[in-house]
Amino acid sequence: MGISLDKVMGFNERALGVFNRRSEALAANLANADTPNYKARDIDFQAVLQRAVNSQQTLPLTITRSGHIQAGGDASFSELLYRVPHQPSVDGNTVEAAEEQVRFSENAMRYLAEVRFAGDKARGIKQAIRGE
């Protein structure tokens, strides 16, 4: 019986993907902090995580047009939601820069922690293979 690295490292890979997508969304929010009528967006990481834990499989996708996401692609942007601001802006922009910076920093720390967990897991597998 062989070791399936997809099963061992799969969760870390998916989590890193979601952290990466969230980082992109938060960076876009920060970049558009002064754009009139820009709506801040974020990924609901808890919902994505819960769905991954419950299903342990990818979402089935039906492609009806050439511009659709290809089957087997990452659908984590389906969890990209609009954020309701604490203090609405006069120009319709919903980005609150201080909160975006905090969320971006928190996401970066979680990403780095997940990278460390994946590295530790890989190191443990190598040690087990070597018999250490």
List keywords for this structure.
single chain, 3 helices, mainly alpha, 132 residues, 55% helix
What does this molecule look like?
With 132 residues, this protein is mainly α. The protein has 3 helices and 2 strands. It has helices at 5-31, 45-55, 97-130, and strands spanning 41-43, 80-82. Strands 1-2 form a two-stranded antiparallel ribbon. It is elongated. The two termini are 20 Å apart.
Whole-number average pLDDT? 81
How much of the sequence lies in strands comes to: under 5%
- Point out poorly predicted stretches: 72-76
Structural class based on helices, strands and sheet pairing: mainly alpha
The whole-angstrom Rg is: 18 Å
Number of E-state strands: 2
Tell me the count of domains: 1
C-alpha geometry: elongated
Calculate the terminal CA-CA distance, rounded to whole Å: 20 Å
Spell out the helices and strands N to C: HEHEH
Largest sheet: 2 strands, antiparallel
* Main β-sheet, spatial strand arrangement: 1-2
Provide a count of the helices. 3
The helix content is 40-55%
Q: What is this structure, in a nutshell?
A:
The protein is 55% helix and 5% strand. The protein has 132 residues and is mainly α.
